[in-house]
Amino acid sequence: MRFQPISSKTIISKVALTVAVGLLSLVCSLGWGFNSAIAQPATTQPATAQPTASQAPVVIDGQPIFQVSAFGQFSAQERADLINLQIKEAIQASEPMQVKLEERNGAPTILLNNRYLLTVTKPDTVSSNSPADQAALWVPQLQSTLQQAQTERSTSYLRQTAVIAVGLVIVAFGVQWLLRWLEQRSCQRLLQRVSSTEVDASSADNTKLLKLIFKLSGTIVRIGLWVATVLYITNLFPFTRQGSYQITRILLSSFTSSILTLGNKSYTVIDVLILVGLLIGWFILAGTLSNLLRSRVLSFAGINRGVQEAIVILTRYSLIAIGTLVVLQVWGLDISSLAILASALGLGIGLGLQNIAKNFSSGLVLVFERPIQVGDFIEVGDLKGTVERIGGRSTEIRTLDHVSIIVPNSRFLEMEVINWSHSNPISRLHIPVGVAYGSDPKVVRLALLEAAQGYPEILKTPSPNVLFTGFGDSALNFELLVWTREPSRQFVLKSELFFRIYEVLSAKHIEIPFPQQDLHLRSGTLSFSPPVESALIQLSSQLAHQAPAGLETSESPIEAVKGKQNQEDVQISNGSKPDCNNPS
Question: What mean pLDDT do residues 273-280 have?
């Protein structure tokens, strides 16, 4: 089974979709990991209450153990700080840890090395537990965590953990090298596929876009790799675990704090990132499905290229509109709350986005009315070329020099457009020809018809024709009319016809004239006024006295000036220059 080659746009869509899904999964996993790191300690423990504004965590080496509330004159944070300080002092001591539970004044009290640690009150309990039950749960949990803290400060544990940390760094470098190698190899393969399927000017832009996508995704993945490695290593050591805990809390609070409120619901950074990732992924998926519809369905349906592009554009925008509404509903956004956003968007369109809105609406008109379609050869102002793509804001025209020009859609509705391929691509070409006066018009007509024979681009029906358009200043003007169904090749066809016409006319000794003009100089009697005549006589007398012997003339200067000159005609042609000293 033979498949059509995949275009670079399809490849870019697939790569971008994969990257978007991967980044979305990375964001979700990081958010889940932060939540897990904050909510759960390293060891298996019973469920504890989630932190609230009226509670503060008791932390051992960066691991939250449980939450305490305000009691008496102490706030929740002051109470937690006192407990954490006493636990820290007990861990630094070399004596064994011993946690006991006693009842004092009718309330369960926890002792650490026979010293008072805390009294469990009703606000400290989780769910429906009583203070006694809650204290019974906290005692073994606290005991095991303190023993683990002392064990982690031993020399053997620190040496073993250092070896593991070095090994993790080496593994991280190896994974980074492997990711870079996979990135370069995958990029080279995709670039080879793009270069093998497209050789036009857009392939360079697609190549740059692919490289940018791979570079960006690779950088993000490598940053995520090293962030995860550093956080994991700092969690191994008890001295750095507290800093790791603080960084994780800051990151988590940054991602989980509310930054947007719509209606009665607030949204965090993670929520917004998930929404943006879903929308980007859906846009890319809609483009991929549209390209598959074009390449796998419409291309085999026998539909022309313009109709295919119109169906693809409508399908893409319909999928984007419907999918956006569905994603917003799934995300938990009330569509009715978008009324304010829609009004703000309308105001923005009225003030600064009116050109974009005008081009977008013009694109919809072009899609529905189809005055131009993909594949048409058109003229817009000084631009001549083939329509390659009709987008939502602009249209791409490929000129005869294979230069892509992006034209705003509104320009096609604001000015005249010559569409050589509209409804019927058959067009008539006019070839002007001039021959010298004295040529036989019938012979010229037969010569021009002969020159139009033998070209597959020229249609036999309608047949070529020759018109005698008039008498010019220097030539008899004819016009050769031929029909072709490939208007995009009209300039090449005209050039070939001019070559052929010159050969046929030269073979039949029919002269092709060049423009010329005739200049007539007429002689006559030259008369002077009396003062001028007296001055000339005086000047001639002085010249006669000053002339050397043997150079006297028998003709006076006045007779030479007023003498008759024979009438003469001087014809000046293009490329010739008359001799002014010898007019004959």
Answer: 84
